[in-house]
Amino acid sequence: MIYEVIKLKKSLILILSIMLLISFVFAACASKDNGDADNSSDTEVNLEDYDSEFGFETEDVTDENGKAVTDSDGNKVTTDVAVIYKKDSKGNTYAQKLDADGEGVTDKKGNAVTVKSKTTTKASNKDTTTTAKSNNNSNSRETTSTTSATKPTVTEKPTATTKKGVELTKDQYTTEFDGKEVVPKTDATGKEVNFDEKDMEIIANMLEVPYLYKEDYENSDPIPIDTAVYTAVWMAQNIDGASATGDDTKYNSNQIILNLFKYYGNTVVNFKTQCNSVKGTPIKYLSDKDCFKINSFPEKQQDVTITKIEDLGNNNFYKITGTVSNVKGVDSVVAIIQKNRLETKLGFSIKALKWS
Fold this sequence. Notes:
Distance between the termini: 90 Å
Order of helices and strands: HHEEEHEHHEHHEEEEEE
Low-confidence stretches: 5-10, 12-16, 20-50, 117-162
Oligomer: single chain
Strand order of the largest sheet: 4-8-9-10-11
Number of strands: 11
Strand content: 15-25%
């Protein structure tokens, strides 16, 4: 009897030892799979959970008492709010506000601060611009942290004017979101107009993102990942003031993705899962830290001079035609842009491109 008990104890100890050994093996494998993003073992399956959807929602501006602010005509004043879309325990999607660093805003109890709006402008390949009449929200730092009236520092360069005698556009921000708009294609035509010189410089600079000339796309197409990596670095440098490179510097993943959304007005689908696969990419995603590192800030190759601007109507869309120099085999560019407030330092997003 005593022998059988001892034998049983030995069996239990052996089973426990085997189970413990198996758990260590699985833990080691999991640790290896979640290593540095430089390791080619990272796959789309491993990184799917790290991709997030971002966008903008419109909400009413309120005063210190929580009362809606109205303009001189009695209309409610609204503002654009950067958000990240998440799901609650019941599977319902909600929009959590983002702060200036791209982090989700929470209240004192740690609950997500959400945006209550009539429309959901969820980030997707469908246009997601919204109305923004004012950003003077004295009751919410979250809504004002993503908006600024300051234009970026742009390289001083001569910018061609468009047709003489053509009037300047008058409405500064008139983009509205109705959920049904269709972005014009690059072969669309419209009435020729003028932008002021500062706006033309900004657009030219946006079209001079390094290696942007390598890919064409219409708004219905996915944003090319081969050029999106350079756009991400350009936005980090020109909008966020990033300057550090290397393994010791980490960049907030939410802010990088949100900047891409602002530039294109579309989501760059699965950017985190794809950016590391681009040959010579200047930016890499570190899955174990959920952040990016920037390897370099590439210098621009192409110089763009705007020669014509056409008003395409339909919610503030414009066709930009320009000449291109310093790039072999590329002489001109056509871009469809939208004048909006996704990124107020720029005031525009690039909706389609065609280089020739």
